Structures are given as structure tokens and as C-alpha cells.
């Protein structure tokens, strides 16, 4: 009888470990530092890794996991897998993210890979929104990356997200110039 209890207990504990994370409560401030970045709290806020100076006045900085103000639609209780972190080329130890990463061809290669794009919706959503804030549509960037990696960088740089003085002067001239006569 005792020998039958071991397989049942093993099956029960294995099945409980495979339950979705929605049954867990994710509080950013309680996450271990190596799981903080790319996680989403129960309340739907992104968790971020931040540095702070120790209260003792020393030079040493320490890291902490904090709840950001960014709310993620339709996702909560999410701790990104190590497989997705590797597949998408992101770094859990980085403090903050930047759209500059989208200019790195190695990074966009991983981010746009089918492994990342099809299996890691949280990371893709994060960079989709980051790209959109720069005036870039991530699916277009990934398509351009697949068809011509060097051209995709040119398209990103010329997306208009960071228009220079010539573009600004042209836009002003267009606004004040009288319409052409018909």
C-alpha cells in the first residue's frame, strides 16, 4: 500500500508544479532578483530591476525589484522563462530598456526569430510597445530584418521617430508655405 502512495504523491506533486502561474501571486518586491526583469505582477504591472545606494552611505549600490507604473493589458502573474530570455536575447540583469537595442542587428535577429516571436509574447509585447513609441511597427521591422538585415536598420533610422533639423525645417516650411495655385 505504501509503495502505491509514492507514485500517486509523485504524480500529484508533478501535476501541481505544471499548473499555470495564474494560481500564484506575483509581487515584484518579493521576487528574487534573477526573476524580476520581464515579470508581470498579479496587478498587471511590469516588474523592473532598479539600483539604489545603501542607507549606510557607502559607495556600494544594491539592486531591488520594484513595481513599475506600466500596466500590461490582458497579462498578469507572469514570470518570463529562461528559455524566452535566451531566445529573445534580453538580459535580466539590465536596468531599464532602451529602443537603442532595436538598432543592434544581433538583438533584432533574436527578437524577430520565430522562437522568440511565436513563444514569448510578453517580451515581444514589451518591445512592440517600445518600438511603437519610436514610430516603428515591430512586425514591419522584423519583416525587413528577414528580407534584408542591413536595410532594416536604415528603415528604422529613417522612420521619422527622431527627425533631425532638416526634417523639422522642411515640416515648418510646408506649414507656412501657401498652397500651390491650381
Automatic annotation (TrEMBL):
Pfam families: PAR1 (PF06521)
Cited InterPro entries: PAR1 (IPR009489)
Keyword Magnesium tagged: no
Signal peptide: 1-24
Keywords (A to Z) from UniProt: Signal
The protein's name in its UniProt record: PAR1 protein
The species this protein was found in: Dendrobium catenatum
Species lineage: Eukaryota, Viridiplantae, Streptophyta, Embryophyta, Tracheophyta
